[in-house]
Amino acid sequence: MTSPYYIGLKQARAALAEIGIELNERQIKRAADPDAHGIRKLPFFVDPIDGRLKIERGKLLFTYKQCQEQAEINSRVGFHNERKKNAAD
To answer: Measuring CA to CA, which of 7, 15, 34, 75 is 20 to 30 A from 48?
Structure first.
């Protein structure tokens, strides 16, 4: 098991850019800020020492991978059909 690696908004933006998700500062800030119900779009938290928003790098990237997998499952034509077919063989 690897140790958690916590990153801030700027580093989160760069990590997403590495996988082709180009967000501007406003977009990443919006994902990190709580909505009217106090829920964040991404699992950012306030660092208790410096008071800045942080997120675990692996969790951020895993969240995007999970969304991609869910999109494949929900698509009419997608990889999930191939997986089911291969599983049956």
So the answer is: 15
